[in-house]
Design a protein that fits this description.
The structure holds two protein chains of two kinds. Chain A is mainly α. Chain A folds into two domains: 58 residues; 247 residues, MetI-like fold. Helix content of chain A is 72%, strand content 1%. Chain A is built from twelve helices and two strands; from the N terminus they run H-H-E-E-H-H-H-H-H-H-H-H-H-H. In chain A, strands 1-2 form a two-stranded antiparallel sheet. In chain A, helix 2 packs across helix 12, helix 3 packs antiparallel against helix 4 and helix 5 crosses helix 7. Chain A is flat, with a radius of gyration of 25 Å. Chain A starts with a helix and ends in a 9-residue tail after the last helix. Chain B is an all-alpha fold. Chain B folds into two domains: 108 residues, no CATH class; 214 residues, MetI-like fold (Orthogonal Bundle). Chain B has 14 helices and no strands. In chain B, helix 2 crosses helix 3. The chains are: A mainly alpha, B mainly alpha. The interface between A and B is large, with 119 and 108 residues.
């Protein structure tokens, strides 16, 4: 579009003389400045976090990456992100395990199974899940979901307890990483589902009709025509969901019992994540404590940045789906 | 979009008449009944118990019965098709059930402590143990913080979107597009951390409602840029060219022709972004903290907001404060819904007339 306008634009300014060009130049400069501002903003987020994290790194007597304790304000300060990294990784991965299949199924249902007249409204309904604030997910997870999770976690312990992940040696099933993962799964479901649906709807109709014409069942059509076409889109949707799960703060902070240890028994009350820890410790932290929290936030920022960049570059490679809803 | 269900069904009906043996029309229903009967037997004879457990057993049996039956009559391909249909429909139902469960919990529990007084009083001098009090201070805080955030974010975002659509070519535009997208994924707590390091630690300002607004601005910008960009892109080129043909300079064409044409869509996008950030808690905890009483000045001292009000009430943990937390959640959902409703209204009012 822009290229077709260029010659016209140039002509217009040549005919009208310099007064036009000044207005155009100022306006263009303003918009360009706003664009550059966004880049500066992103760069300064990184820069300020690094700068303010330095005192923590200088004073830490533990190993920042392998220490599990978090005592940045004691003398000498000892803290590390091992427990936080573990909790963040395992809760996000569990959430992905639960959410990805359900989200893809939901997207397929809305795109190909639901009645065409209601499918837009159904899509809207699922998008409502994305609009629910995270504090409400936290409150619901803590007060409602947690009281209904004893059955399944006990069952996991009784029948799958031979897998260390599901063993529960305490007999207490509340405030666990498992519950947090279920809540996270519900939170990231609409993100993954919306983008996947958008991609599925862009599968060329001819591809699907060709499959159907060959006598393929609906499932075979999806497997042969829809999934191969939509795969990169679904992968990037999954990455965006992962990004959201990694950075989710409040819901996780409310549900977990915030322990600084690596506990593989995910149905026991334990666990902590980068984001939740910042929210919980912020208002009781001293100078080094703040700096240590900023340092852990920096790590979270870098991780989500990488995850999002990978997701976005996959989308950018397949320009057809813009990810407008992501 | 898709080949409609009726067409497919007709087609399947035809093929079954011609060549293949298919299951009876209500095979799914029959399988459901058989599975229910088997579930009753299993729950009756074994220690398996509970409603949730029974539903799971029933669902597994249903899939087994239906797939096995279909496999025996129709063969492998149709059996897997039926299984896929069941699984795909079920995943949608699970998502829907989660939504319904959350919304009904908030509505039912929220109504316990909700009243007109709840909206018009503050938590000043209300002990956590006592009932009463309200979130007037938090409502004011949220409206001020979100309003200021919108005032800052809207002009910047619209300029960025104009740059990307009308001017941007080459490297810089690519970088801006890419980083606006990446910015969508910045965790809200990181936005709060950044504003704290920048505004409080570096420049020495106190924590305030305004600092919270700055954090919310960071979260709003990418959302508004993306939606405005989409809207500007669908403004017909003919309009721009007609304007150029009349000798109108480009900037004036954008300000007077392009933006007004896309106005409805842009406002809708802004409303949606407001609805999204109105529920943010994490950045506010870092940048304004909590307050029990009304503070109308966003530039000085801690200021409450609805999400942090809910957080505070949950942290108190007494029965009365948990009720207040749910009522706060209900008000928060209402605020979000109002902004979504406004967005839809604007979209509807400004939608181009259908010819």
């Amino acid at each position: 579009m822009n290229t077709s306008l260029k010659p016209l634009d140039a002509q217009a300014s040549r005919v009208q003389g310099s007064s036009v060009r000044v207005g155009d130049r100022i306006f263009r400069g303003m918009t360009r400045g706003a664009g550059i501002f966004v880049l500066i903003l992103m760069a300064s987020i990184g820069a300020f976090l690094v700068w303010k994290a330095i005192p923590a790194f200088q004073n830490n007597t533990g190993n920042f990456f392998t220490t599990q304790e978090w005592f940045p304000d004691s003398d000498p300060p000892v803290f590390g992100i091992a427990a936080l990294a573990f909790g963040t990784a395992i809760s996000s991965l569990m959430a992905m395990l639960i959410a990805v299949p359900i989200a893809i199924g939901t997207a397929l249902f809305i795109a190909f199974y639901a009645n065409r007249r209601v499918s837009t409204s159904l899509g809207f309904l699922i998008d409502v899940l994305a609009a629910v604030p995270s504090i409400i997910y936290g409150l619901w997870g803590l007060q409602v979901l947690m009281t209904h999770m004893d059955g399944i976690t006990k069952w996991l312990n009784d029948y799958l307890g031979f897998i260390p992940l599901f063993r529960n040696e305490l007999g207490i099933y509340t405030k666990s990483i498992f519950i947090a993962s279920v809540v996270l799964a519900i939170m990231i479901l609409p993100t993954i589902s919306a983008l996947s649906r958008e991609v599925f709807l862009q599968v060329p109709r001819a591809h699907r009709e060709a499959a159907l014409a060959l006598g393929a069942t609906r499932w075979e059509t999806i497997r042969m025509a829809v999934i191969p076409f939509g795969k990169p889109g679904v992968i990037s949707a999954t990455m965006l969901g992962l990004g959201r799960a990694l950075g989710e703060t409040i819901a996780v902070a409310l549900i977990l019992s915030a322990a600084f240890e690596i506990n593989w028994h995910i149905t026991e009350p334990s666990g902590n994540t980068f984001a939740a820890n910042i929210a919980l410790k912020w208002n009781e932290a001293g100078p080094i404590g703040l700096s240590a929290l900023i340092a852990s936030g920096l790590i979270l920022f870098i991780i989500t940045l990488v995850v999002n960049m990978v997701a976005r570059s996959i989308i950018a490679k397949h320009k057809e789906f813009s990810g407008a809803n992501g | 979009m898709s080949i409609s269900t009726t067409e497919t069904e007709e087609f399947e009906g035809l093929s079954s008449q011609l060549a293949m043996r298919r299951l009876p029309r209500f095979a799914g229903l029959y399988s459901a009944f058989i599975a229910a009967a088997l579930t009753a037997v299993i729950v009756g004879l074994t220690p398996a118990q509970g409603v949730a457990g029974s539903v799971v057993i029933w669902f597994v049996l249903f899939m087994v019965v239906q797939t096995a039956w279909s496999f025996a009559v129709e063969g492998r391909r149709f059996a897997s098709d039926r299984l896929a249909t069941t699984l795909i429909s079920t995943s949608f139902l699970i998502a829907l059930a989660a939504l319904v469960w959350i919304i009904t919990s908030v509505t039912i529990r929220g109504l316990k402590a909700f009243s007109a007084d709840f909206v018009t009083t503050t938590m000043r001098n209300v002990s956590p143990l006592r009932e009463g009090g309200g979130l007037w201070h938090a409502l004011i805080g949220t409206l001020e913080q979100v309003g200021i955030a919108a005032l800052i974010a809207v002009p910047i975002s619209i300029l960025v979107a104009i740059y990307l659509v009308e001017y941007g070519t080459g490297r810089l535009a690519q970088w801006v597009t890419f980083f606006v997208d990446v910015m969508t994924g910045v965790p809200s707590i990181v936005a709060g951390l950044f504003i704290y390091t920048f505004w409080v630690l570096t420049f020495g300002f106190e924590r305030s409602g305004f600092a919270a607004s700055l954090a919310l601005t960071i979260l709003m910008i990418p959302v508004i840029v993306r939606s405005t960009e989409e809207m500007l892109k669908i403004v017909p080129n003919d309009l721009r060219e007609a304007s150029y043909a009349l000798g109108v300079p480009k900037w004036k064409t954008i300000v007077r022709i392009v933006i007004p044409t896309a106005f409805g869509g842009i406002v809708t996008g802004i409303m949606l972004s407001i609805a999204r950030v109105a529920g943010e808690t994490a950045p506010l905890l870092l940048t304004t903290f909590l307050s029990q009483s009304l503070n109308t000045n966003p530039f000085s001292g801690p200021q409450a907001s609805i999400p942090t009000f809910v957080w505070d009430q949950i942290s108190s943990g007494t029965p009365a404060s948990i009720d207040r937390a749910w009522a706060g959640a209900l008000v928060l959902i209402m605020v979000v819904v109002i902004f979504y409703g406004l967005a839809r209204l604007v979209a509807k009012l400004t939608a181009p007339a259908k010819d």
